[in-house]
C-alpha cells in the first residue's frame, strides 16, 4: 500500500503462495505471482527462472524481500537476474519493543519516503481498515482454532460462549479448518455443530468472505483475527502468553483480551466484550 502511494505508476507484484496472492489482490488491490512458479531457482548459483518469472524480475526497479538479508542466496540470485534493481530486505523477526510494524519502519531508515508512506498507511488501517467492502449479515463469527496450543482459548469456553450468545438470540457461525479436523475428536466437533452453524472455508478467499459477513469476530491470536482486524470487522482477539503489544491485529475496531494464561480468561469477560462490540 505504501509503495503504491509513492510509486503510483509502478505495478506492485506480490510473490507468495497462490492463495495468499489471491487474498492480497482482493484486500490490498495488488497483483500477485505464485511463488511455486519457479521462483525457487533464485537460490541456485546460476538462476534459470521460467519466462514469466524472469520477465517480472528483470523488469523490476525495486525488490522488497521479507525472507532475504542483503547477502544471502536469495539476495544474490535477485542480483544476478536483476542487477539494476534496488533490494530492500526487511526482517519481521528483528527484536523490538513496539509493534512489529514499528520495527519494519525502523529498518526503512535508508528509504525515508517509503517509511513515511508506510506510517500513513498504518494510520489509515488503524482508522478505517484497508478499505475492503464489508457486507455484515447480523451474525457473530467465531474461529476457535490457532496454530499453537498456547494460543488456543479452551474449546470448552468457546462452547460456553456460543451457548450464551445463542440463548441471547444471537446468530453464531463457527469457522473450522484442517487443523481442528486433525487435532480435535469428532465428538468435540459435533458439540460445535450442535450449537452453531459450522462452516469449513477451503480457501483464504472463502475465509475472507466469511469474515466480511460478520458483525463481530472472536478468535485467538491467529491469521483469521489479523485478517478480520485489517478489513475493519469488529474483532476480539484472545491472547495468552504472547505479547499483544508486538503482535496484536491491526484495525479500527480491534479489542484485545489477555491474561498470563489463556485458560484463565473467563467466558463472561469475552461475552461482555462480544455483545458490546456486536452492538456498535
Question: The CATH topology of the largest domain is what?
Answer: Rossmann fold
First-to-last CA distance: 28 Å
* Assembly status: single chain
> How big a fraction of the residues is strand?
15-25%
In short:
Helices cover 43% and strands 15% of the residues.
Walk me through the topology:
Blueprint: H1 2-6, E1 13-16, H2 18-28, E2 31-34, H3 51-58, E3 62-65, H4 73-81, E4 86-89, H5 100-106, H6 112-128, E5 140-143, H7 155-167, E6 172-175, H8 178-183, H9 186-195, E7 197-199, H10 204-212, E8 216-220, H11 223-230, E9 235-239, H12 244-247, E10 254-258, H13 267-279
Helix pairs in contact: 7-9, 7-13
3D architecture notes:
- With 280 residues, the protein is an alpha/beta fold.
- Helices cover 43% and strands 15% of the residues.
- It has 13 helices and ten strands.
- It is elongated.
- It starts with a helix and ends with a helix.
- The mean pLDDT is 92.
List keywords for this structure.
280 residues; alpha/beta; Rossmann fold; 2 domains; six-stranded parallel sheet; two-stranded parallel ribbon; 13 helices; 10 strands
Amino acid at each position: 500500500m505504501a509503495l503504491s502511494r509513492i510509486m503510483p505508476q509502478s505495478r506492485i507484484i506480490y510473490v507468495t503462495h497462490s492463495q495468499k496472492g489471491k487474498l492480497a489482490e482482493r484486500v490490498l488491490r495488488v497483483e500477485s505471482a505464485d511463488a511455486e512458479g519457479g521462483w525457487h531457482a533464485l537460490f541456485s548459483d546460476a538462476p534459470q527462472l521460467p519466462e514469466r518469472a524472469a520477465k517480472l524480475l528483470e523488469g523490476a526497479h525495486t525488490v522488497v524481500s521479507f525472507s532475504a538479508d542483503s547477502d544471502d542466496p536469495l539476495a544474490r540470485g535477485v542480483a544476478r537476474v536483476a542487477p539494476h534493481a534496488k533490494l530492500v530486505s526487511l526482517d519481521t523477526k528483528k527484536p523490538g519493543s513496539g509493534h512489529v510494524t514499528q520495527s519494519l519502519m525502523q529498518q526503512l531508515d535508508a528509504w525515508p519516503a517509503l517509511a513515511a508512506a508506510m506510517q500513513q498507511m498504518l494510520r489509515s488501517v488503524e482508522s478505517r481498515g484497508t478499505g475492503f467492502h464489508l457486507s455484515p449479515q447480523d451474525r457473530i463469527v467465531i474461529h476457535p482454532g490457532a496454530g499453537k496450543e498456547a494460543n488456543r482459548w479452551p474449546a470448552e469456553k468457546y462452547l460456553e460462549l456460543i451457548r450464551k450468545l445463542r440463548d441471547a438470540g444471537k446468530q453464531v457461525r463457527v469457522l473450522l479448518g484442517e487443523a481442528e479436523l486433525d487435532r480435535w475428536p469428532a465428538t468435540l466437533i459435533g458439540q460445535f455443530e450442535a450449537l452453531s452453524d459450522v462452516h469449513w472455508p477451503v480457501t483464504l478467499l472463502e475465509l475472507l468472505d466469511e469474515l466480511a459477513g460478520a458483525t463481530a469476530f472472536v478468535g485467538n491470536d491467529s491469521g483469521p483475527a489479523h485478517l478480520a482486524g485489517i478489513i475493519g470487522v469488529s474483532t476480539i482477539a484472545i491472547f495468552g502468553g504472547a505479547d499483544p503489544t508486538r503482535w496484536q491485529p491491526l484495525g479500527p475496531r480491534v479489542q484485545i483480551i489477555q491474561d498470563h494464561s489463556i485458560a484463565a480468561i473467563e467466558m463472561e469477560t469475552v461475552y461482555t466484550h462480544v455483545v458490546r462490540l456486536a452492538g456498535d
